[in-house]
Write a structure and sequence with these properties.
- The complex is a heterodimer.
- Chain A is elongated, with a radius of gyration of 28 Å.
- In chain A, strands 2-1-3-4 form a four-stranded mixed sheet, sandwiched between helices.
- Chain A folds into two domains: about 230 residues, no CATH class; about 100 residues, abc type-2 transporter like domain (abc type-2 transporter like fold), CATH 3.40.1710.
- By secondary structure, chain A is α/β, with parallel strands linked by helices.
- In chain A, helix 3 links the parallel strand 1 and strand 2.
- Chain A contains 15 helices and five strands.
- Chain B is of the alpha/beta class.
- Chain B has two domains: about 100 residues, abc type-2 transporter like fold; about 200 residues, no CATH class.
- In chain B, helix 2 links the parallel strand 1 and strand 2.
- The longest helix of chain B is centred in the middle third of the chain and has 31 residues.
- In chain B, about 60% of the residues are buried.
- The model of chain B has no long low-confidence stretch (mean pLDDT about 85).
- The chains are: A alpha/beta, B alpha/beta.
- Chains A and B meet through helix 2, helix 5, strand 4, helix 6 and helix 7 of A and helix 1, strand 4, helix 5, strand 5 and helix 6 of B.
- Strand 5 of chain A pairs parallel with strand 4 of chain B.
Chain lengths: ~375, ~350
Amino acid sequence: MTWLAAFRLDLARWRRGRAMLAAALIPPLAMGLFVWALALSVGRQPVALVVEDHGPQATIMADIIRSDQEAYALKGTNLRTAEEMLADQQVAAVIVIPHNFDAGVAAATATVDLTLNNVDIDFGDDIRRAVARSVAQFDAPDLGFGGERLQGGMSTVVPNPYRVAIAEVPLRKTNVGFIAYQLAPVVLFVVLSAGALGVGWLTADDTRSGALRFLRTTPASSLALACGRVVAAITVVCLIDALPVTYAAIIEHLDLARTAMVCSLVVLTGTVGVGLGLVVALIFRRPPLVGMASTTLCSYLFFLGGGFTTIAFLPSWLQTASDVVPTRYAIDGLRQVLFYAQPQHLALDVTVLLAVAVASVAVAAAGIASAS
Amino acid sequence: MLVVLQGTTFLVLVSLFALTGSRAPTAVINSDGSVLSRAFIGDLEAAHDSFSIRSMTPQEARSELDMGRIVAIISIPKGFGESISHGRTALVTVQVDNVDADMTDDIERAVPSAIVLFGDHLHFNGIRARSVEHDEIPHDTGYVQYLVVSALALDILVIAGVVAGSAVAREWETGAAAIWQTAGSASGFILGKVAAASAVGALGTVPPMLLVVFAYGVVPVHWATTVMALAGCCVLCACAGAALGASIKRVVPASALLFGLAIPLYMDSGALEPERFDGNKIWALAHLSPLYSVVGVMEDAFHGLHVTPEPVGIDALIMIAWAVAAFIAACLLASRRLGR
């Protein structure tokens, strides 16, 4: 039972290696914090609303803007204060419904004035789109917030002066928020990073200390030693991820089958990480280099796998490149299981992940066996 | 080499993230082919960087949507142009792969704004209100172009910080610190490490800087300020790294902690947009990140943008204050660890 002895020894080393665990866990946890903080700047933009006309049409326009709480974090104020807030970056834009709005509506020349701090197009365009939709809603209520989905459920077209109506057909029955969608892959990043960095470090440490060379002189089978290391690492990464997986299962109300699928994806991703960690250790050998290379590799795998991006938005050559990134299948599979009623491509995701996990561990274990 | 690679990695990955901020890859199925339908497609393309439009057949569109290569399909029906010519309203169908609420919201806002452009261009009767925009800055700055500048600050933090942190921590890990206990001063020891790390950081900044200028096409509007800001950032980050290395005394944990801290410090620095837009509490917190003032100076140097309410001169002074504070902290920590 050489593998069991190696397994126990490695478990003890993992338990003592707090610095190693910290090194493995800090980058993914920081990434989780990054995603969470990012969610604060997504969606609603701080905008000041100045209503100078108190006629009925201006009131309708103001109510349309106030009701779109999904787009604006609105602060009602007067023009002078709004300008000060814009200059002081307390708001990104000022929307003014001018004093002659009602008269303008009667003459079909009414304007809503938008003054925008267009520092970058990301939030600038968000505000432009939101204001355009609010103004459209004034003359065409069905173009406003939620109108597209209503029109999608109707058999007749509601006329509007823009002469184009929208019927929106969402493809999924879901309402996944940005934070949940982006945080889910962090669960996989944790196991990937812990597996790669932990095993890489242990192996590099064995190489540095000469332990691998020493083991060559003992009757212990090299393959059994490699197996013990791999199983210990997978056990540890599973323990690390037990809490977030349990939390996700409770929050997303997962049934037993889906929970089992999430666990499988986590174990497979951890195994891929372990395999990659072994490969990195064989290439770089010195613990500091292995630590840095593993962190870099895991960052690439996380991003190119769609952990922090939506693959469809990437240039086509990067989309093609991401086809061979195993984390793409892990992240896609996890999101499918967690968020969508009818998961797609799940069999493909699991198959690819399983193949990569087995192949990377086999190659690395063979490498370790021959090195020792 | 690996540190420089990791630094450049951050730059590339941040710009990849920026790509998701605009131009949703969308298929248009134009079953009409009239002048008006083509005009509508033009307005979809012009609708505030909302769509990256690709004309497709229904089968191609469905296949691309299934493969995750596009996120929406807009179908313009046959008779679209004729309906509009006769004053009727045509129905456009939008299929959205609503993977998350944020992306769905963007598309739900973008299609009406394209319809508004369409109505405005054709001067239809019955439109009583329009929006009139006044921009504070005469030109728009792309999201990728904005982000890569702040990502340079992140690169420098990783490169100079990790080099300084590792160099200082290695002295204890290898036992060489004992030699420093018998010779030299803690401040001299830290000064040497910081100077070397700053020089390495400056050299390591060259590849990402070349990437920013030649690959992303971001040419600084104030070259002198840019060079000074980058040099100042190298010194600041080297001082911070040295302080961390002196406090942790182990190479790998110190490097990992710097990698880990780099992202939150970067996030809370106005890297994605002016930090005050996220509210006063987060803005106040941002002042705890040394990168806040660095990003303020660098966005001004590269794009001429003011992304902090504080004047750029104040941001530069805060950068210097951070560097001095980090240097003193590193000296004190090293002095205590060396038993002096």
